[in-house]
Write a structure and sequence with these properties.
By secondary structure, the protein is an alpha+beta fold.
Length: about 650
């Protein structure tokens, strides 16, 4: 067994590999960029080597620097994690030439299956069902349009070396094919150093189901059941689960055997994932093979009890798999939510900055797990992926797993940056998701104009008003106790209150009870018992004897409450104050239609218009790059450009003016 391994990655996956290595008694080496010098994974590793500036093409993607770090520290093997160089055949080959073990498949397997074009050719030769498409690299956007027309729209344009949704577009017409090709080429070049793309038929109403496989150097292969990754936004996975609610035992076996046959065809050694697109009639087609560890591997670990990182290390060290296919179990149900630094209420734009508060739910062995690479006080950088953490739960049934995930999301506290937790919570209570009847178009179909709090109905909005009233009374009680008032002259707290929440008002009456308050609105009574103290973000207690967990914080005159995906900001006022507020004039919002503002922090890659130019609604104005994704800003209405304020190559902040219109 290895004595020391190097992790050629960063963030949560680096932390994940380090934890298993330490449990196995293996020392670890972290390589890090200048931007990551204070990162959690660097602190967890036994040694660390700085390999360059923040941009990944100058650090994490430089093979020579990683090999030099191995030699400097005496690392015998390298685990690549996912992304970066994990599916780079040249990296695997160079390590082998240097006598350093690659904790993954051999370079020839990476070359054949890690390349999306070559893997599809191999699948065709092996008589695996494949999607119709054009499997050669495409020279330019005009050729991409001709090929798309020949296949028939819709088509999927995908980077050959891609993964994680990077370098991928779906086109429904010639214009989208032309623009999508250019965007894919740029993203692929920046993210993977390989700008080849290919085109294939896009299956309408598909499910994305993948099979986890393991192989060793002694010819042993197993499949570890399936994962359903159909809940996606912009082709990036949002929620993954294992098993799939769509797959039956016969289908599972057929897909698993086909995945193993494909792995055997290239003498695959290590963990890998064979991805399939599945039709409504349960027909399935080979999509691609990821020759690395997947982001969503923990759901497979929960239902099988197998540590995939450990198996990768053991296989790389030459060991045989210690179990066979009949030993692989399928125990209960597991789900994973990717917690990303993005604002779901602003079109899921990237959110960067410092984590002022980071308090994940408590981990519970066998039921709740949090994989993360961040810590409270750390910074979310614009240079890398937006993932903050992965929240993974396990239950005996799918319904239990959903309920456990909803509770865990309620208890996940993040402040300082925005996160997609409200959106995740909303998805988990959507009827289509709960029923299991969904496909990869689910989010686009259900949220075509984006996401906002109004789309998340709460079972009992009066409950939130009651909790806000409880918080207001606790605040008054705290203020009274620290003011040092003379006996007999204490503050008189009324029993009647008004909660203004959106367009509605709730008249509340309050009575003290043991450990809390009894709060009444019309014929609804809430006995709230909690030891919550003002200033705590997490509110836990019971309401009418039922446990409750939500997040609450004071924001001026309002209390922001988050519960099951819904965020509200009620004001709790005396009856007199509420009446006076109703008489106040309303302030009109400022007119910003003459300005193009940056919706996110990032790098301004391109200005597509010039001063004095007439632009039409929908026309491209600028391109901003953030967290390895290109974001095209388009005109919302016909306008004439008056002044270009920001210049290409500049780093722009949120709401910074880019273009001024007449």
């Amino acid at each position: 067994m290895f004595k020391k391994i190097l992790i050629a990655n960063r963030g949560e996956i680096a932390c994940r590999v380090i934890k298993t290595a330490h449990r196995m008694g293996i020392r670890t080496v972290a390589v890090y960029s200048e931007a990551d010098k204070d990162a959690l994974f660097v602190d967890l590793a036994d040694e660390g080597v700085c390999i360059g500036p923040a941009p990944s093409k100058e650090s994490y993607l430089v093979i020579d620097k990683i090999i030099a770090a191995c030699k400097e520290t005496g690392a015998e093997a390298v685990h690549p994690g996912y992304g970066f160089l994990s599916e780079n055949a040249e990296f695997s080959r160079r390590l082998e030439e240097e006598g350093i073990k690659f904790i993954g498949p051999k370079h020839y397997s990476v070359g054949k299956m890690g390349d999306k074009i070559e893997s599809k050719k191999l699948a065709l030769e092996a008589r695996v069902n494949t999607i119709p498409g054009y499997n050669e690299a495409i020279s330019g956007p005009d050729e991409a349009v001709r090929i798309a027309q020949g296949i028939g729209y819709p088509v999927m344009i995908k980077a050959s070396a891609g993964g994680g949704g990077k370098g991928l577009r779906v086109a429904f017409n010639d214009q989208e094919a032309h623009e999508g090709f250019s965007s894919c080429v740029n993203e692929a070049r920046n993210a993977f150093g390989d700008d080849r793309v290919f085109i294939e038929k896009f299956v309408v109403e598909p499910r994305h189901i993948e099979i986890q496989v393991l192989g060793d150097s002694h010819g042993n292969y197993v499949y570890l059941n399936e994962r359903d990754c159909s809940i996606q936004r912009r082709h990036q996975k949002v929620i993954e689960e294992a098993p799939s609610p769509f797959v039956d035992p016969e289908m599972r076996r057929a897909m698993g055997e086909q995945a193993v046959a494909l792995a055997r065809a290239v003498n695959y050694e290590s963990a890998g994932t064979v991805e399939f697109v599945v039709g409504a009639d349960k027909s399935f087609y080979f999509l691609e093979m990821n020759t690395r560890l997947q982001v969503e591997h923990p759901v497979t670990e929960f239902i099988t009890g197998i540590d995939l990182v450990e198996q990768m290390i053991r296989v790389a060290a030459g060991e045989r798999l210690s179990f066979s296919q009949q030993d692989v179990r399928l125990d209960g149900w597991s789900m994973e939510c990717r917690i990303n630094a993005e604002d779901p209420f602003r079109g899921f734009l990237p959110s960067t900055g410092r984590l002022v508060r980071f308090q994940p739910p408590l981990e519970q062995e066998g039921s709740v797990r949090v994989d993360t690479g961040v810590y409270e006080g750390g910074e979310i950088s614009m240079y890398y992926d937006s993932m903050i953490a992965k929240l993974i739960v396990h239950g005996a049934t799918r319904d239990q797993a959903i309920a456990r995930m909803r509770d865990a999301l309620n208890a996940f506290v993040i402040r300082g940056i925005s996160s997609n937790i409200p959106f995740q919570a909303a998805l988990l209570q959507h009827p289509r998701f709960c029923s299991g009847h969904f496909n990869t178009g689910f989010i686009a179909e259900e949220y075509p104009k984006g996401f906002d709090a109004a789309m998340v109905p709460h079972d009992d909005p009066v409950l939130l008003a009651a909790v806000a009233t409880f918080a207001r009374l606790r605040y008054i009680d705290r203020a009274t106790r620290i003011e040092g008032q003379m006996p007999g002259h204490g503050r008189k707290v009324p029993a009647g209150w008004v909660v203004i929440m959106g367009e509605r008002e709730y008249a509340m009456s309050v009575e003290p009870i043991e450990g809390g308050l009894s709060i009444r609105h019309r014929d609804q009574t809430y006995h709230i018992v909690s030891d919550w103290r003002f200033g705590e973000l997490l509110f836990t207690g019971t309401v009418n004897g039922t446990p409750i967990c939500l997040q609450i914080e004071r924001r001026g005159l309002r209390y922001r409450i988050a519960h099951f995906g819904l965020q509200v900001e009620p004001m709790v006022m005396t009856q007199r104050a509420a009446h006076l507020l109703s008489l106040m004039p309303k302030k009109a919002p400022p007119d910003l239609s003459r300005l193009l503002l940056s919706p996110m922090p990032g790098l301004l890659r391109e200005i597509a218009v010039s001063e004095g130019q007439e632009v039409k609604a929908g026309e491209k104005l600028a391109v901003i790059e953030a967290m390895k994704m290109e974001n095209v800003l388009k005109a919302e209405q016909d306008r004439k450009v008056k002044r270009i304020v920001a210049k290409p190559g500049a780093s722009v902040a949120v709401d910074e003016v880019i273009i001024e219109f007449e």
